Amino acid sequence: MQHFRHFKNWLERKRLWEFVAYLFFGQLATIVNIIVHFLCMGVFHAHYMTATIISWFLANVFAFVTNKLWVFHAKSASRWAYWKQFLRFMFFRLFALGIDMSSMYLLREWVQLGNGLAKVLTQILVGVANYFFSKFLVFRKLP
């Protein structure tokens, strides 16, 4: 545990801890997304687009909580401030869903990649977009 604290302190001094925490929780959200996606398709025989929407929703509920609490340590002064932040988060995640859906369509239908590779490539693109949305537009530090 001492090695972890030393490593965390070093990352904080280099101003990288937030990014590393985002990557860690982002990977967990991606895992949630992918597992739910394939469960929807494999167990419930959902179309890949339906599976993408369901997996998106559940992964983003997870992402909001982890980003707010453990990545950006965003405090809300009131319930209204909390809901504004949540709505802003969901707005930009909806925008990212558009990136997700259009990328899946493009990679599946035009490029004709398999579902697994298309999903992984799409999640990388969506993850990068979500980091910028979250850091600069949703959980930004206000003066």
TrEMBL record:
<dbReference type="Pfam" id="PF04138">
    <property type="entry name" value="GtrA_DPMS_TM"/>
</dbReference>
<keyword id="KW-0812">Transmembrane</keyword>
<comment type="similarity">
    <text>Belongs to the GtrA family.</text>
</comment>
<feature type="transmembrane region" description="Helical">
    <location>
        <begin position="45"/>
        <end position="65"/>
    </location>
</feature>
<dbReference type="GO" id="GO:0000271">
    <property type="term" value="P:polysaccharide biosynthetic process"/>
</dbReference>
<feature type="transmembrane region" description="Helical">
    <location>
        <begin position="113"/>
        <end position="133"/>
    </location>
</feature>
<dbReference type="GO" id="GO:0005886">
    <property type="term" value="C:plasma membrane"/>
</dbReference>
<keyword id="KW-0472">Membrane</keyword>
<keyword id="KW-1133">Transmembrane helix</keyword>
<protein>
    <submittedName>
        <fullName>Cell wall teichoic acid glycosylation protein</fullName>
    </submittedName>
</protein>
<feature type="domain" description="GtrA/DPMS transmembrane">
    <location>
        <begin position="22"/>
        <end position="139"/>
    </location>
</feature>
<feature type="transmembrane region" description="Helical">
    <location>
        <begin position="86"/>
        <end position="107"/>
    </location>
</feature>
<dbReference type="InterPro" id="IPR007267">
    <property type="entry name" value="GtrA_DPMS_TM"/>
</dbReference>
<dbReference type="InterPro" id="IPR051401">
    <property type="entry name" value="GtrA_CellWall_Glycosyl"/>
</dbReference>
<feature type="transmembrane region" description="Helical">
    <location>
        <begin position="20"/>
        <end position="39"/>
    </location>
</feature>
